């Protein structure tokens, strides 16, 4: 009898040969500057814990208190019996924090894109999307059944070409871009894209997953960074990166957010986020509103680490944010580099990124800088990166 799954074994063999099979490591401690990974204490340059809030005492205390008051789960979808007072409090606070009329709290940033895009456009409509937009945007576009038109990465001229050639042929049009691109660390030209869309009557949406808590005054995000508060039709965010917890946010004009509440399938058909997560997110907003200290520390660490990597001779690509890619090109080399970092003494945890997450020939190690890192941590990381880089012939 033929093996029904022999094709999977063959595909795995191909991935191994190309250096593209993902090795999933197991974490044995809270997220911080140092973590236990696969039983070894290592310096963490891998997580999205930009402000060090994932194990913050105030967030943990808020989550624990919420469990005592609200229990461990709402046991319902938001639209039936799962909307807690805490959910509405968080939505109101996030709207004020971002300078918009309203916000909707959903299960994750990934869910937020799948919730918002099909609610705004469908068959007979068109989406203009950056070539390097995140997978959650790509999936949300596909789910919408709208026609998808791709413009070249961060290229306003090409976006205008695509819009001009196509906008009149469809019922509605929506432009979507990441704010900060998670693999390269570069930033969308949001002001120019907004002006372009205003001229052509195109709805606007930005995914600010890696900008919230990082860019703008006190971490208010890329829209604040460009002084466009309240002007973008939809802002998508996540509370699992700089905010250190879990959940996604859809923010913008009240009319638009209310419409998404009526139509968004992840909101309507998946259980609500727990009270513990919601309360921890509220505590994170409190911290960001009270002080800009963590955001400033993040950027101080970013400048120091990037300069150290450049001086060592590494290619850090086009990043202007705390995301620091170490460009290696070959996927097998990237996997080898990551293993050597981990096996060093002390070990450094920084995972390889290869196709299909990034294009073929653009493999890299992605180092993620955090406010939780001390200057000593950064120096240790720079030393280990340089040692491995010399051993593998990446730098001289």
Notable traits:
396 residues; alpha/beta; Aspartate Aminotransferase, domain 2; Aspartate Aminotransferase, domain 1; seven-stranded mixed sheet; three-stranded mixed sheet; 13 strands; globular
The CATH class of the largest domain is: Alpha Beta
Mean pLDDT: 96
Major sheet:
7 strands, mixed
The number of distinct helices, counting runs of at least 4 residues, comes to 15
Can you say what the CATH homologous superfamily of the largest domain is? Type I PLP-dependent aspartate aminotransferase-like (Major domain)
Radius of gyration: 22 Å
Task: Estimate the global geometry from the Cα principal axes.
Answer: globular
Please give the share of residues in helix: 40-55%
> What pattern of helices and strands is seen along the backbone?
HEEHHHEHEHEHEHEHEEHHHHEHEEEH
Beta-strand portion reads 15-25%
Number of separate strands: 13
What is the CATH topology classification name of the largest domain?
Answer: Aspartate Aminotransferase, domain 2
Terminal residue distance: 55 Å
Helix/strand structural class: alpha/beta
Please tell me the total number of domains: 2
């Amino acid at each position: 009898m033929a093996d029904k799954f022999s094709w999977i074994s063959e595909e795995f063999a191909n991935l191994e040969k190309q250096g593209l099979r993902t090795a999933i490591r197991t974490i044995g401690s809270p997220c911080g500057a140092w973590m236990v990974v696969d039983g070894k204490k290592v310096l963490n340059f891998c997580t999205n814990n930009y402000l060090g809030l994932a194990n913050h005492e105030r967030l943990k205390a808020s989550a624990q208190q919420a469990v005592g008051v609200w229990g461990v789960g709402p046991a319902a979808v938001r639209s039936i019996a799962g909307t807690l007072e805490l959910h509405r409090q968080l939505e109101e606070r996030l709207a004020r924090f971002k300078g918009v009329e309203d916000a909707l709290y959903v299960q994750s940033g990934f869910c937020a894109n799948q919730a918002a895009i099909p609610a705004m456009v469908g068959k007979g409509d068109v989406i203009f999307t950056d070539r390097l937009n995140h997978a959650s945007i790509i999936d949300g576009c596909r789910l919408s059944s709208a026609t998808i038109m791709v413009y070249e990465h961060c290229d306003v001229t090409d976006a205008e070409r695509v819009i001009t050639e196509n906008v009149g042929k469809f019922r509605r049009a929506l432009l979507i871009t990441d704010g900060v691109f998670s693999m390269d660390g570069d930033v969308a030209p949001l002001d120019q894209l907004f002006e372009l869309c205003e001229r052509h009557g195109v709805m606007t949406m930005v995914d600010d997953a890696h900008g919230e808590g990082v860019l703008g005054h006190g971490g208010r995000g890329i829209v604040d960074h460009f002084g466009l508060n309240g002007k973008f039709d939809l802002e998508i965010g996540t509370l699992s990166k700089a905010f250190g917890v879990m959940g996604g946010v859809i923010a913008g004009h009240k009319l638009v957010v209310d419409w998404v509440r009526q139509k968004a399938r992840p909101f309507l058909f998946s259980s609500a986020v727990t009270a513990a997560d919601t309360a921890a997110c509220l505590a994170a907003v409190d911290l960001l509103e009270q002080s800009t200290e963590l955001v400033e520390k993040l950027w101080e660490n970013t400048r120091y680490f990037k300069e150290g990597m450049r001086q060592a001779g590494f290619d850090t690509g086009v990043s202007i944010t705390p995301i620091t890619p170490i460009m290696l090109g070959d996927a097998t080399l990237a996997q080898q580099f990551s293993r050597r970092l981990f096996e060093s003494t002390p070990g450094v945890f920084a995972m390889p990124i290869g196709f299909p997450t990034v294009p073929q020939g653009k493999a890299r190690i992605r180092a993620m800088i955090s406010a939780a890192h001390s200057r000593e941590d950064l120096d240790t990381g720079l030393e280990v990166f340089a040692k491995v880089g010399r051993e593998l012939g990446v730098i001289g």
